[in-house]
C-alpha cells in the first residue's frame, strides 16, 4: 500500500514528464522541467475513433522506425486517449514542439522519424493546417477548435497514458482522495459539492451535492456508489472518451463519493460495446488495488472502498438509474417506480448514489481547487463546463468542453468550423432521443440547463448533432421515435404503446398520407406520454416531435397538404426529373439505373419514368452535367 508520502514522491518524479507534453506551459518551461530521459515525446491517440482509423498500426510502425534510426534512448511513444478532433484521425502530437500531425498514414512515418524526430525538422505538410502559419508552428490552443475550450473533465485526455497510474499521479491524481480522507469529514466533502454548484452531467442536471446529502442521511449497514457509463444516446461519446483517456479520475471520484456517504462498494456499469474503455478500466482498477488506493484501510484512514465493473448489453433504458441498478442485480433492466428514490432504496434495496462519468471527472479538481474555482465558471444556475460530442453537418466533428453559457453559434461556427459546402445552419439536436431541436432563431441562446429546457430541448448527456438546410425535420423526429420505440422496455403501457402510435403517425406523414388532424393527435399522445410514463425514457420521448412541431410546423404542413418534402429527403414524396436543356444524352444515367426507369436516344434529352423510378439517387449522383434534380 502506498502512503501519502510515497504518492508525493511519485508525483514529484512524474510531474515534469507530464508537463513536458502540455501546452499549458511555455516551451521554455517544458524544456527546462524534469521530463525523464527522453528528449522527445510522441503522443499517439489510442481512443476508439483513431483506433478504428489505424492508430495502432501507426504506433507499431513508429516503434519500428525509431529502432531503425537508433532513437530508442531519445524518443518515447505514448498511447493516450482522445485529443478531441476525431475527424482528423489518426492523430499524433510531438513534444516539446507541440507539432500536431493529423490523418497520418503508415507510409508517412519514416519521413516523420527521419526528418522530425532525428533531425528536428517538422514535416509541415503533414500537420493540421490550422497549426501552420508561415514558418511558425502554432500550438493547438491557438486553433479555432481549441481556443474557446476549457478542459476540466477532459484535462488529462490526450496528455497522459491511461494505462500508467504513475502518470495520473503526476497530474495530482489521488491527491484529492488523500485530502478528503486525512483532512475532511464526510459532511465537509458534501458541503464542498453543494457550494460548487456541480449538477449531474448525465441528463436532468440534479445537484450532485444534494444527491450525496440525501444518501448520507440514510442509515444502513451497506451503501453503494454507482457510475453510469452506459452511454446510449446516438452520436454521444463523451463518457467513453473519459474512460479511455483518464480512467483513474473516475475511480478516485467514486472513492471520494463513497467516503462522503459512507459506502464501501462501488460499481461501474459500462457498455460492453466499449471494449477499449472496459480494458483500461480493468487495468486502472488492478493498478489502484496494487497501490492500496482501492481496498481496505486506504491511506491508513480506516476507510474501505472497492470497485467492480458490470457490463451492460446495450439497452438504452439502462441509462435510467433504477433500470441500471436492476441490471446490476442480475435482473432484466427495467425501471422501478419512484419513490422510494435510490438514495433511500437503490441497489440491492440499500442507499445508493448514481453519477455519470463526466460528473465524476469534475470532482477531484473541485476538491483540490475549491468550490469557488468551479463555481466561477459557467452561469448562475449552471456552474462549470460541459463536454459535448459535436457531430453531424459540421466541419470539425469531435469532442469539445466549453464553459456553460457558451452559445450554440460559438460552438457551431467557431469551434465546429461552420457547416460544410457553404450550406446554411438549420437546427441542432441536443439531449439525444430525450432532447429537442434548436432552430436558427435560438442560435445565440447561452447553453445551460435552464435555457435549453425553456426552448424545448435539454442538456442530456451531451450529444450535439448539427443539421443543415438539407435535413428534413419530420424525418429527424421519426428517426428518434424509431429509436425510442426500439429501446422501450415495454414495462409501462404509455411508453410501450404511445411511442409506437406516434411513430405510426409520423410514418403516415412522411409517406404523404397524413392529415392535419394527425398533428393534434401527436400533441395529445405526447401529453399522455409525458404525464403517465414510468421513467424518463417515455416521459422525454415526445421531445423531438414537440420541438420540431414548435419550430418547423411548416414542414409538417408541406408533407400533409402539398405532399412534398421541402428538404427532398422523404422518398415517397420525391420525384427525380431531368432538365432537358442540360441533358447531353450521354446515356450514363440510363446505364446505371438499376430498374431501367430512364430512357432516351444518344445525344438527345432523356426522361425518367416516375412509376419505375426507385428513387435511389444513383442517376443524380453520377450525372456530370447537373441535369438531374429532385423535387
TrEMBL record:
4Fe-4S ferredoxin-type domain sequence ranges: 574-603, 604-631
Alphabetic keyword roster: 4Fe-4S, Iron, Iron-sulfur, Metal-binding
Family per similarity comment: Belongs to the complex I 51 kDa subunit family.
Record's protein name: NADH-quinone oxidoreductase subunit NuoF
Organism this protein belongs to: Dorea ammoniilytica
